[in-house]
Amino acid sequence: RFVAPVPTRSMIADIQVLPTPSGTAANAYLHVEAAIAAIAATGLSHSVHALGTTIEGPPDAVWVAVRAAFDAALASGATKELMMLKIYQGSATVAQLESSGKACAAAAAAAAAAA
Fold it and tell me: What is the pTM (predicted TM-score) of this model?
């Protein structure tokens, strides 16, 4: 029996770790930095931005990275951890989604300027 191959799917996770406390007196963001270091250690493509971190890769590896980030914040000394998580799985990449978003923003700006 022939089984068609499943198309390769990428997963994108956008996470924000909110440990309590966020760090120590010596380093105000120690526990956040521990989460980012755990993500970096996975070797997955990621980018840190003002309100979180975006991770891209195979679904199983992205889930592992998300869990590693959560656990790292606690292991570094945070007493509580809250994580905001957004997940996308499909054929688009981060670059493609960002390009699409920029195109929509530009079209909206042009329409507003013409009005």
Answer: 0.83
DSSP string, 33-92: HHHHHHHHHTT-EEEEETTEEEEEE-HHHHHHHHHHHHHHHHHTT-SEEEEEEEEEEES-
Do you know the residue count of the chain? 115
DSSP state of 29: T
CB-based burial of residue 18 (10 Å sphere; 0-12 exposed, 13-18 middle, 19+ buried)?
middle
88 close to 11: Cβ distance less than 8 angstroms: yes
Bridge partners for 57 per DSSP: 11
pLDDT single digits (tens) 64-99: 999 999 999 999 999 999 999 999 999 888 999 888
